[in-house]
Amino acid sequence: MLEKYINAATRRKKADLVLKNATFVDVFTGVLRKGDVAVVGEKIVGTGEYQGETEIDCTGLTVIPGYIDGHVHIESSQLSPEEFASLIVPRGTTTIIADPHEITNVCGMAGCEYIAKAAKNVPLDIKIQLPSCVPATPFETSGAVLAGKDIEKHINDEYIFGLGEFMNYPGIVYCDPDVLKKAEAAHAAAKIIDGHAPAVYGYELNGYLCAGISTDHECVTKDEIEEKISKGMYVHIRHGSSTQNLGNAKHINQKNMRRFILCTDDRHAADLKEKGHLDDALRRLVADGVDPVNAVICATLNAAECYNLKWRGAIAPFYLADLVAVDNLKNFNAKYVIKSGKLVAENGKPLFDTSKRYLPENVLNTVHLKREMKAEDFVLTLKGKKAKAMTIEPGGVVTGCEIVEVESKNGDVEVKGTDLLKLFVVERHKLTGNIGKALFKGYGFKGGALGITIAHDSHNIILMGDDNASMAKAANRLKEIGGGMVIVDGEKGEIHSLTLDIAGLMSSRDAESLQADSRALIEKAHSMGVKRDYEAFMSLAFLSLAVIPKLKITDAGLFDVEKFAFTDINA
Amino acid sequence: MLEKYINAATRRKKADLVLKNATFVDVFTGVLRKGDVAVVGEKIVGTGEYQGETEIDCTGLTVIPGYIDGHVHIESSQLSPEEFASLIVPRGTTTIIADPHEITNVCGMAGCEYIAKAAKNVPLDIKIQLPSCVPATPFETSGAVLAGKDIEKHINDEYIFGLGEFMNYPGIVYCDPDVLKKAEAAHAAAKIIDGHAPAVYGYELNGYLCAGISTDHECVTKDEIEEKISKGMYVHIRHGSSTQNLGNAKHINQKNMRRFILCTDDRHAADLKEKGHLDDALRRLVADGVDPVNAVICATLNAAECYNLKWRGAIAPFYLADLVAVDNLKNFNAKYVIKSGKLVAENGKPLFDTSKRYLPENVLNTVHLKREMKAEDFVLTLKGKKAKAMTIEPGGVVTGCEIVEVESKNGDVEVKGTDLLKLFVVERHKLTGNIGKALFKGYGFKGGALGITIAHDSHNIILMGDDNASMAKAANRLKEIGGGMVIVDGEKGEIHSLTLDIAGLMSSRDAESLQADSRALIEKAHSMGVKRDYEAFMSLAFLSLAVIPKLKITDAGLFDVEKFAFTDINA
Hints:
The structure is a homodimer of 571-residue chains. By secondary structure, the first copy, chain A, is of the alpha/beta class. In chain A, 24% of the residues lie in helices and 28% in strands. In chain A, α3 crosses α4, α5 runs parallel beside α7 and α11 crosses α12. The model of chain A has no long low-confidence stretch (mean pLDDT 96). At the A-B interface, α1, β3, α7, α8 and α9 of A face α1, β3, α7, α8 and α9 of B.
């Protein structure tokens, strides 16, 4: 193959593909250059004046290396990897570092394998990080456990790129042996470890870094960014749907700029479809005053260097021909996207078959209940008239705890006619029959039940409502459809649902029809009283995440995150 | 081990070693910081305020990461790897990328293995590049041949780091299959390939780079540097004894500076001893106006990134504790050198045992002659009265060709009483009995013979003189001592020699006594007429390098480099 590259590079033979008359970003010297970009097979072979078997006129366009997303959970889009690719590749993203943390919590290694194999259907390089924290906490029942010995076993799997974000920083800092075993396994395999260290500073940060952690996407302040970079971390500039830190780019200067990279972490399908992916991040960064070439370098060469993706992230001979031709470095509208030398998208539309789906049995039908749920399963018996109720600020994931007055009838708390709702987490993986029970104040919903099988990070069933029979119907419907979202209108006797057939987290359908149905379901929830401030279903999905303050509910019970212990609902 | 690091990083336990009260270079943000640098085992565990089992007061000193020499031939020092380390480690160099091209031309893979094993005696990381061009040309007889299949076999040897400088750029650009096989083998093994592409530009450079070549240490002009960096190469700033391009540093700017690294390539023992190694390069760069922190970054982090030496080249948690405490960033006088967490040099003196030598049989006694040489072997019969004679500019390696008038007697050219000398290359590896014969004009030597077993790149015997019997004596003495340098004073009947027992290239002795003897021998050569402009012996060593214009002599005959063909001595 080298011979073919060299013959074309030296112009003894035509290149396969030439982007003619381009302006292109030279990420090594930080300038724009003019010329043709010649491609043979999957490689760039040269810049200059070239002829190709195929030629694409790039007059007036700017060619940049394909974008690299440094950290993303595909599951957050609720789309299959194939459909996800069909949205982001036409935007110019050609490589992602994917951490299948969510699906692995449900399906174990089958979840990782599924993403890796689905990736083969699409022209997007999906580098799989082995999730380091499955389960995220020991306070709930997950579908799988990846202990130190499991990481030791799987870190060398051929398709595993590195070790995913190490969220368990106390486990590292306080030297939990099984946690350290995971880091040691990654180092023995010479694989990168991604970090996750919100507000970790000073000696604690030194300790965390001594596990050999390379990146952080949770930085937000100037001091934190400076300290983390100075201690060797690459810092992500994150453009998620709910969590963003694009402002980190304010702290880029010419001395530290090689240590910034871009990521999206969690990004919803609607945002991907309507606003975009890293193209949207670049657009915003440039609008915020970041030098466009620097922004491109962060999205390309820097990420390639961070993740040791040799021969990627630049427009130069022997580099992978992942290229995006955009209108300009302000709007970043992708006119052409080339992946590994092939034109794969034009004018924002994929040119590849987006209908293929890899759908193995072991990621389907993942809602397992010990038995059919009945109304009496949702009786909530309290000892007295005071109880703890969870609250949540709209748009956030931090919950509050409020002591509320309650009335009971026949040994069951009476929420109808109050601003309280019952909240349950029904275990759906291991047939334990566990049901965690709680109260929630202020969601606004009335007359039935809402349910969802996305419940961070173990993804049991979260149910909320004011009617026990509706709650049972919701749980049973979720089992029946294999996971998703459900709303039971107890008064009308209607059940509406949306199937997320892949692990109860993602749909195998196309984004467009999925979103239409999703919008209708959300509208139904609001019509039944859910305040418009909330995201109807997705606001529920974080009520079980027992590492974010203050009060959380898991299948094992009510959890006080500040005390880091289970707590009694009776106040 | 992670537990020990973390416990010390978080100050729950004392560190092994702490450099107290230091100013240290933060290569990630390009600034100087103040604090203690704590070390456990071979790793840095943190910066801040620390206590250690051992503490070194660095008040007033500046701590920088150990220097990385991006490209060096140890053989050029004429010292063993151990003695070489004893000179450069106290200067602050802790890692070198060594290309044992010379010894491999003599000894084959045994030469590479020797360097790798000798390295274990000293606190210096010697990363071995498998020489890509053995022999350098097909126009001479070398001690070994590493063909494509040999590179395929050995590139995966455990101690091989990458593929050494690819000097045969025509072989790449014109797609010699065996040459490309070497590059393909390196890529299959995911190993880096060093380049060597003097004045290669444009489409030819594109072709060369399409073999996947990462570096160039031959750059000299602004345009060449800019083009090579923009096409993805790392550019070395070279501080050799004869070849230097420190001026490359003028072209560093904040946008391209991550792509510059330092190297020495070929550096003589006297320079190492008297002037220094990369410390001397840094000193000169800063004196020339280069920002001191940028200069340090080139010598450390940049080289680590170029050569994918993860966790090296910075002062941060989990990085290898290779550290140099210098007086300041102007003089770079190394007060303390720490290698992998151990204090290995202080005040310029090694603290390690410098007397150990690994000396395997297969790198000794490498001068093999078909039979004892006799005076008549050095008869040079010419057809007429005109012949081609080589010339050389003092201080250079480019030779000239001059047509000279000659007189012969008894079928042997008569050089006595002229400014001509006879010049021979006697094959010393394969018992071929080959003797290449030439004339040289203007060296000044009279009354005997000079000989040396360093003759780039195949290192046959080069002999020069005006007396056939002295020539034979010189050759026989070189065989007897196993290689080195010899001078025969035909009139006095004296033979003086200096042994280079390791492959005829390097001495197993200490630098000091070797240099004293070497100086005496050189003085003797000058006393016999060698012009002071020449380096007496070392100026001979490049007369056989048939890739550098214009006229060269190998064991196979006189070679016209411009015509790239052998040529007749008769003009």
